Amino acid sequence: MLSEERHQAIAAELRRRGTVTVTALSSGLGVSEATVRRDLELLAETGTLRRVRGGAAAVRGSVRPEADLRSFADVAGTSTAAKQAIAARACSLVEDGEVIALDIGTTVAAMCPLLVERSLTVVTASLAVVRSLASAPAVDIVILGGLLRPNYDSMVGTLTESALGQLRVDRAFLGAAGVRADGSVLDSTPSEVPIKRGLLDVAASSYLLADHEKFPGSGFLEVARLSRFTALVTDRSPLPFDITFPDGEDVEVLQP
């Protein structure tokens, strides 16, 4: 059984039972307990489950901080006017007929209502984006398959990364957890970082969408340098703090 198949089977068992044990999974999947433990650690990183002694539990009822358990829908429901304005400015960069990539995140997802009447191809690993644009008459959607990260409605993992590596897009729009004064663009979910880096690799132009609260925001994993992006789309300039770029590096700042 492939790792992606095991992960799907483990997630399904959790939905049925609420908890699983390493011993039972090892027997049921026909793999070693060491393999099951590695699977559980990876799934815990994606937010699919919560590791407990001897196995795992469903995320519901977790004792982790409430902020870690907020779903994409919860966060999207708190979309601010700043995020909507940033999304509108980002959409103004898109030309009909282009292939664009939309990252996960609420600011990027706020672009969707403004794209439903456009003629585009949209590449995404975000199911929220798929649902928003599924009925758009002239939008073709390329869904990056992989392992479902249910708490944030996104696809992650090796299959997602492999599919992304086969594509080329005109523009990519990304979100982030934070941006530091040294120009580091940060995220806080290990499984999402390779997807973001992959989007940067396949895009002719790339844009970071970040409101003023993302400076410095949060995050502990560096996705890329801010100068790697074609432009930063934000709601406030000058920025809340000066970003120090090495010699020869810079980024254009776009505002609503």
UniProtKB/TrEMBL annotation:
Q: Which PROSITE patterns match?
A: HTH_DEOR_1, HTH_DEOR_2
Q: MF terms per GO, please?
A: DNA binding; DNA-binding transcription factor activity
Q: Which InterPro entries match?
A: Carb_Metab_HTH_regulators, DeoR-like_C, DeoR_HTH, NagB/RpiA_transferase-like, Tscrpt_reg_HTH_DeoR_CS, WH-like_DNA-bd_sf, WH_DNA-bd_sf
Alphabetical list of Gene3D superfamilies matching this protein? 3.40.50.1360, Winged helix-like DNA-binding domain superfamily/Winged helix DNA-binding domain (1.10.10.10)
Keyword annotations from UniProtKB, A to Z: DNA-binding, Repressor, Transcription, Transcription regulation
Q: Where is the HTH deoR-type domain?
A: 3-58
Give the domain of life: Bacteria
Repressor recorded as keyword? yes
SMART domains found in the cross-reference section: DeoRC (SM01134), HTH_DEOR (SM00420)
* General function of this protein: Repressor of the lactose catabolism operon. Galactose-6-phosphate is the inducer.
PANTHER family xrefs: GLYCEROL-3-PHOSPHATE REGULON REPRESSOR, HTH-TYPE TRANSCRIPTIONAL REGULATOR SRLR-RELATED
Tell me the protein's name: Lactose phosphotransferase system repressor
Which species expresses this protein natively? Brachybacterium ginsengisoli
